[in-house]
Write a structure and sequence with these properties.
By secondary structure, this protein is an alpha/beta fold. The protein folds into two domains: 193 residues, Isopropylmalate Dehydrogenase (3-Layer(aba) Sandwich); 128 residues, Isopropylmalate Dehydrogenase, CATH 3.40.718.10. 43% of the residues lie in helices and 18% in strands.
Length: 325
């Protein structure tokens, strides 16, 4: 099986190295193939997602992606983030899973990833007005609702659908379609909540939640909030899944250019994303559980400076590898 690795920018190559070290131990049969992406690719080719990289991703079993982004391109015409959005759309990875866990919290946010405000029509009118359009087709809502309901069936059988149905037409359609799909899942308790209330509830009582499903922008915001409630973005992994093609597995945090090259980046989110890839992308459940357990061991005994410890990126990886041996 081939895994395309996108080392990314900033601390991306550093945390990707630790992921590849772990994969060489738990799944040595995998073929790991590096491809340029993000700011690195812009410098090399002028495109944040070169056609050769896209072709390799399409033919792979999974895509393991490190953070991208570089201040050099923040206001440029070609930006790393454009390649990220295009890759998601080209692979149709519509279901973004964002687990958040702590001693008292165990929830998953299922975020629709290829529709809504980030992919709608946008532009500028002659009078200077600019606009971004939120659009959803019922079929897009149906498939993300089905994915979330299936996940809820395998967990505690509770699903919260988050919208803004008191204001938005897209949300009213979203709520109606979720109810239609949920009718086929008698064993799952389905609740609806407005996004502002959901944010308040997540901040005050995150332990009450199991599986949440929501549209793209709401999911972007709520999943970062959930990560903050359970240790921060440095620990948060994600899996972006399609129905019949490779998924994209990546940490949630950014490229952190301010600490790039210092050897102190926390690789936990990258390694947790690797575990999600082993489970959801490659069907290697035992290997995924082993990596998750080893990361917990390293977090407990050898944290990096962002968590109050002294371990370097490589030293953290060494602890993970020892736990796997």
């Amino acid at each position: 099986m081939t895994v395309v690795c996108l080392p990314g920018d900033g601390v991306g190559p550093e945390v990707m190295r630790e992921a590849k070290r772990v994969l060489s131990v738990v799944a040595p049969e995998l073929e790991l193939e590096d491809r340029p992406f993000g700011a690195q690719a812009i410098r090399e080719t002028g495109d944040s997602l070169p056609e050769e990289t896209l072709a390799a991703c399409r033919s792979a079993e999974a895509v393991l992606k490190a953070p991208i982004g570089d201040p050099e391109f923040d206001a440029a015409e070609v930006r790393p983030e454009q390649g990220m959005l295009r890759l998601r759309a080209e692979l149709d990875v519509y279901a973004n899973l964002r687990p958040a866990r702590s001693e008292t919290v165990d929830l998953v946010i299922v975020r629709e990833l290829v529709g809504g405000l980030y992919f709608g029509a946008r532009g500028e009118r002659e009078d200077g007005t600019v606009f971004d359009t939120m659009e959803y087709h019922p079929s897009q809502v149906e498939r993300i609702a089905r994915r979330a309901l299936q996940l809820a069936e395998s967990r505690r059988r509770r699903l919260l659908s988050v919208d803004k149905a008191n204001v938005l037409e897209t949300s009213r359609m979203w709520r109606r379609v979720v109810d239609e799909v949920a009718a086929g899942y008698d064993g799952v308790e389905v609740e609806h909540m407005l996004v502002d209330n959901a944010a308040m509830q997540l901040a005050s009582a995150p332990e009450r939640f199991d599986v949440l499903v929501t549209e793209n922008m709401f999911g972007d915001i709520l999943s970062d909030l959930a990560a903050a409630m359970t240790g921060g973005l440095g620990l948060a992994p994600s899996a972006s899944l399609s129905d019949d093609g490779p998924g994209i597995f990546e940490p949630v945090h950014g490229s952190a250019p301010d600490i790039a090259g210092l050897g102190v980046a926390n690789p936990a989110a990258m390694l947790r994303s690797t575990a999600l890839m082993l489970e959801h992308g490659l069907g290697l459940l035992d290997e995924a559980r082993a990596v998750e357990s080893a990361v917990e061991t390293a977090l407990a005994g050898s944290p990096t400076p962002d968590l109050g410890g002294m371990a370097t990126t490589v030293e953290f990886g060494d602890v993970v590898l020892r736990a796997l041996s």
